[in-house]
Amino acid sequence: MAYTIKVNGKAHTADVEADTPLLWVLRDTLGMVGTKFGCGAGLCGACTVHLDGVAVRSCQTQISRVGTKAVTTIEGMAETTLGATVQKAWIDHDVMQCGYCQAGQIMSATSLLSKTPKPSDEQIESAMTGNICRCACYTRIRTAIRQAAGIDTPLGAAPAPQQVLASAAASTPAKG
Ligand code: FES
Ligand code: FES
User: Fold this and answer.
1) Does the Cβ of 134 fall within 6 Å of ligand 2?
2) What count of Cα atoms within 13 Å lies in the side-chain half-sphere of residue 84?
3) Residue 90 belongs to what H/E stretch?
4) Ligand 1 centre and the CA of 38: distance in Å?
5) Residue 14 and residue 70: Cα distance in Å, rounded?
6) What is the pLDDT of residues 93-121, one digit of tens each?
7) Does this model's pTM top 0.85?
8) Domains defined for the chain, CATH in brackets
9) Element (H, E) at 5
10) What does the pLDDT look like over 23-50, one tens digit per residue?
11) SS3 at position 37
12) Which burial class, exposed, middle or buried, applies to 29 when counting CB atoms under 10 A from its CB (0-12, 13-18, 19+)?
């Protein structure tokens, strides 16, 4: 059966079985290979995409259930302001090692930040807990999310005037 879905703002038609996972439609039918296959069982997060802005596992999402929801993949993410901000933070912190999990990591991070622009460390932990990284880049991923959220100063950026004053005050020897 032919299904028409909207991916990164464009309509695409795929003639596939109703239970075909969205992951395979994206990769095999549409040639969008940025979304990765990891476990195929909803356990690793490598295949994460957005459906109407919500992070979902595309390996567990049947094409017949997508309907009119907007699908966003890593290929479309950099075109958004938030996606570009997250991408810059990832580059600034040199997050990637092998890179295999990173499309899914970025899709989960952007879904979190779109709803919770200033997440607590606990909220970051909770949103990212289903994304596995076999290279164990977890600390850099969380640091990059904090920068993208504006919680931490971007690497290489000039410190805020208050930080300069506080730092100067701390290093001024006490009189006497
Ligand atoms: S490939 Fe979908 S969660 Fe692992
Ligand atoms: S960077 Fe290698 S699996 Fe995450």
Assistant:
1) yes
2) 3
3) helix 81-92
4) 5
5) 15
6) 999 999 999 999 999 999 999 999 999 99
7) yes
8) 2-77 (3.10.20.30), 81-148 (1.10.150.120)
9) strand 2-7
10) 999 999 999 999 999 999 999 999 999 9
11) coil
12) middle
